[in-house]
Amino acid sequence: MTEKLLKSTLIAAILLVAAQLPPTAARAAELVMFERDGCVWCARWDRDVAPIYPKTAEARLLPLRRINMDHAKAADPALAAPVRFTPTFVVIDNGREVGRITGYINDDAFWGLLGTLAAKVAPPQPGHT
Fold first, then answer.
1. How far apart are CA 115 and CA 75, in angstroms?
2. In the chain, where do the E strands start and end?
3. For position 77, what pLDDT does the model report?
4. Buried b (16+ CB within 10 A) or exposed e, 64-99
5. Which end of the chain has a smaller Cβ tally under 10 Å, C or N?
6. What element of type H or E holds 87?
7. pTM value > 0.85
8. Average pLDDT of the residues in 82-100
């Protein structure tokens, strides 16, 4: 009987702690950049956009995750289609691809296209991260 009570108390304590944690896993929108070693257009994006991206509203909504296709082990299962060209930027929200930008021409084109994709992602609810 004491062992059963101890298990119940432990489970209740775990659930109580879990309820207090912020629901970060529930909100998983991100911008995934697929790149390759020696990609000239990736390097241009790194020069033009990468230094300012973390400071933008887009970065708060879509944190950047980079995948080097020369070193990646497996493809991301959330993709609607394979990535063939670099850089390719894929917006993923709640485990599904919302859209993508294939290639990089200049920062104006990138920000315009990213803005269109970001508008398709629901902003996090107040109190959520």
1. 25
2. 30-35, 64-68, 88-93, 96-102
3. 66
4. eeebeeeeeeeeeebbeeebeebbbbbbbbeeeebb
5. N
6. none
7. no
8. 95
